[in-house]
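INFO batch 0412 | record 1 of 1 | parsing
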Amino acid sequence: MNSSRGRAALLGFAVFWLSLVPVGSVAQQVPVADATTTTVRDACRSQFRYLKPALHAMDLKRPPVVTDGVTSNIAEAEWPFMAVAYYGYACANLAQCDVTLRADALTEMRWALDALQLPSLSGFMTRHFGEPFGKGSLTPAVFVHGHFLSLAVRYREVTGDRRYDEIMGRVAAALGDGFARSDQGLLLSYKAPVMWWLTDNFTAFSALVRYDRIFKTQFSASGDKLIASIKKHYLDPKTGMYATYVDAPSRTVRQGPRGISMMYGLHFLKDFAPEFAAGQYALAKRYLVAPVFLGCCAVREYPLGQQGPADIDSGQLVMGFGPSASGFGIAASAVMGDGATTRQLLLALSLLGLEVVDGDKLSYRDVPQVGQVVILFGRSELLRLAAAEGSGTPGAK
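INFO prediction complete | emitting tokens
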């Protein structure tokens, strides 16, 4: 199978990976997965200090990567784009929850929004749908446009700054019109070959709901149509969880539920289908999340009782647990208000010795850059959750 997002081998994080972790480091190793808001905030600051120069070192003048989305250059195309998008999401949370980082975080959001529009990051979609940020009307490229709009609208929410309103409007119109024309509220992820990944559409609808709230539009109106179609055609009969990859014209499932796609989709599903998201998360907790050791938990790549191969999406599986699924689970559990599970997943990073603190910077050994950014986003969601609860302990209520 393809990489349903090269979102893939995302995290060199995983349970039972002890034999793969090198012993010793020139930098200090210290656990920072404490529950208190102060400690979570400090960890976010340390990750931010590490990731900012690392991401700015990207070559944003390189030519676009060519990928068919299924067999070639998936990580090279998608991972840098996702790293910048998720970095922006984390900065949105930091701007709202950490006054000392607000100015810097907003500057980084603008850098991310500008970078995402460059051919070096988003040009891999040009052969499928045309230039994603060209002049005039746009053909919806649901993966690229969904993430860009999701970040742009968060920037608008946090700042009120209107500098991206024009491009936001064109992207929102392209997505909204495309969804309206689809009888299932479902858009293609790639065109050559044709690929339909359900969760790419979740990101776009999440962004459109936020856009509609600001601009009093109705571009997200087709969200109910998508959820109805999923419930009718794309739920696994054994678990009730949504499928990963489908064939929309024939209304058939090409691949059933997986940990990586469940956790990725839950980052966004709550924004436009909160009741459905709550039900899906409960099923994910039942069939995918399991305790492993010393108060930690991990996420299975395939549901309990089902098996499948490891691939670029999952990373190496150990006893059925997936590093990518577990990594995306950090943010999914926080977004869903389950701070206890978020902390258990973060604790595994500490206990496995993957955390490396070098001065005032926090990074993770053997974790790709996109994976480190996803961890920061999940941790920043804990801050947002604590602020919403008015609690000193994220997820305490």
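INFO post-check: The first strand starts at residue 190 and ends at 191.
INFO record closed
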